[in-house]
Design brief:
Oligomer: single chain
Low-confidence stretches: 344-370
Radius of gyration: 20 Å
Helix content: over 70%
Strand order of the largest sheet: 1-2
Number of domains: 1
CATH class: Mainly Alpha
Number of strands: 2
Number of helices: 12
CATH architecture: Alpha/alpha barrel
Strand content: under 5%
Largest sheet: 2 strands, antiparallel
CATH superfamily: Voltage-dependent anion channel
Length: 370
C-alpha cells in the first residue's frame, strides 16, 4: 500500500481542529467543553506536525510526486486543505491551546500559523484557479464541491484574524488587520458564489456524479458557515480597531449578512443529507472525501454560535449544540473508517492479523484520485 503524503490528508487536520474550535466558540462554557477542545486541538496539532514533517521528507526525495499533485485536476484543489489545516490549528492554539500553554504562547503560535496559512491560502486561491483555467480545462461534469477547497482559505484567514486584533498595537495595525480581513472575506466569498452556481448547474443538468465524490457536496457549507463566522468574529473585535460608529455598522453587517446566508446553509445541508442518504442506499465507498462531513459542518456550528452573539436569538443556542453533536458523531465515524485499514483484530483462538493489503478503504485513502 502506498503511504505517500497527499494534500487531501490535511483534510483530517481541518476536520479534527474544527471540533476543538467549535467547542470553544459554542454559546456555552463548561469544563467538559474545554477538555474536549484541548484534546482535539492537541490531536489536530499532532497530525499537522506529522504530515508536514513527512511531506518535507517526501518532497526532498520525490519532487516529481509533489509536482504530480498540483497537475492532477482532482488532487490540486486539496492544496487548500494544507492552508486551512494550518489556520485551524493556529486558531485552536489561542482558543483551546492557551488553556495548557498560556495566553502568550497561544498568541505567538496563532500569529505564526496565521501568517503561514494566510500566505499559502492566498497563493492557493489564485494559483489553483489559474491552473484550472489554463491547464486542467475540465468540463461541467467535472465540477464538484472540491473546487471550493482552494478558494475558501482566505475566508478562514479572515475569521482566524479576528482574535488576533486585540493583541496588536492599538491604532493602525489593528485597523489594517481588520479591513484586510474583510478584503480576504470578499475574495473568498465572490469566488465561492461563482463555484456554487456552477455546482448547482452541474447537479441540475447532469447527475450527482461518482458516489465517492458525493461527500464533497458538504464542502459548500464551508464558505457559507465560515463567512457567517468571520462576519460575527470581526464584528466582535471591531470596537478595538475602529471608532464606535464604524463598529456598529460592522455589527449590523454581521447580522444582516449572517441570517440569510445561515438560512441558505440550512437548505444546502438538507439537500446534502438527502443526496448522501440516497447515494448510501446504493453504495457510498469510503474515501478521504468523507472528511468533507466534518470541517464544513463545523463552520456551520461556529457560524451559528456567532449568530447567537450578534442577534441574541436564543433558539440558535440549541441549534448550535445539536449541530455540534452531529459534528462529533461525524468525526468519530470518519476517523474510525480512516483508521480501519491499519487496525489489527483477532478472533477467539486466532492470532492477531492486520487487514489485508490492498483493501478498498486503504486504497481509497491513499488514492490520488480522492
Amino acid at each position: 500500500m502506498s503511504t505517500s503524503i497527499r494534500p487531501n490528508w490535511f483534510a483530517s487536520v481541518m476536520g479534527t481542529g474544527i471540533v476543538a474550535n467549535a467547542a470553544m466558540l459554542l454559546p456555552y462554557r463548561s469544563g467538559l467543553l474545554t477538555a474536549i477542545g484541548v484534546t482535539f486541538w492537541v490531536a489536530a496539532a499532532t497530525l499537522l506536525v506529522t504530515f508536514v514533517a513527512a511531506g518535507i521528507l517526501q518532497f526532498a526525495n520525490h519532487r516529481e510526486l509533489f509536482r504530480s499533485h498540483h497537475h492532477a485536476v482532482e488532487m490540486a484543489p486539496f492544496y487548500g486543505a494544507f492552508s486551512m489545516g494550518v489556520l485551524t490549528v493556529g486558531s485552536g492554539a489561542l482558543l483551546a491551546g492557551s488553556h495548557i500553554l498560556g495566553t502568550e504562547p497561544g498568541v505567538v503560535i496563532d500569529a505564526a500559523l496565521w501568517t503561514i496559512g494566510t500566505l499559502a491560502g492566498l497563493l492557493c486561491a489564485i494559483g489553483i484557479p489559474y491552473m484550472l483555467f489554463t491547464e486542467h480545462r475540465p468540463s461541467l461534469e467535472d465540477a464538484y464541491g472540491s473546487w471550493l477547497m482552494p478558494i475558501v482559505p482566505p475566508m478562514v484567514s479572515a475569521a482566524a484574524a479576528a482574535a488576533l486584533i486585540p493583541h496588536l498595537a492599538a491604532g493602525q495595525a489593528r485597523m489594517d488587520l481588520l479591513y484586510g480581513s474583510y478584503a480576504m472575506f470578499g475574495v473568498s466569498l465572490v469566488m465561492a458564489m461563482i463555484v456554487i452556481a456552477i455546482l448547482w448547474a452541474r447537479l441540475a443538468l447532469h447527475d450527482v456524479g461518482e458516489a465517492r465524490m458525493t461527500p464533497t457536496l458538504w464542502i459548500v457549507l464551508g464558505p457559507l458557515g465560515q463567512s457567517v463566522t468571520a462576519a460575527g468574529l470581526l464584528a466582535k473585535f471591531a470596537p478595538s480597531a475602529v471608532d464606535a460608529s464604524s463598529a456598529r455598522i460592522l455589527h449590523a453587517f454581521a447580522l444582516v449578512y449572517g441570517v440569510p446566508i445561515w438560512g441558505f446553509a440550512m437548505a444546502w445541508m438538507a439537500l446534502s443529507v438527502a443526496i448522501t442518504v440516497k447515494t448510501a442506499r446504493g453504495h457510498l465507498p469510503f474515501a478521504p472525501t468523507w472528511w468533507s462531513f466534518t470541517f464544513p459542518l463545523g463552520t456551520v456550528v461556529t457560524g451559528t454560535s456567532q449568530l447567537v452573539a450578534v442577534s441574541d436569538v436564543q433558539i440558535l443556542r440549541y441549534v448550535a449544540v445539536a449541530l455540534y453533536a452531529g459534528l462529533v458523531l461525524a468525526w468519530v465515524t470518519v476517523a474510525a473508517r480512516t483508521l480501519a485499514p491499519w487496525a489489527t483484530f483477532s478472533g477467539p483462538g486466532q492470532p492477531r492479523r492486520s487487514l489485508r493489503r490492498g483493501s478498498t478503504s486503504a486504497e481509497n485513502w491513499v488514492s490520488a484520485r480522492s
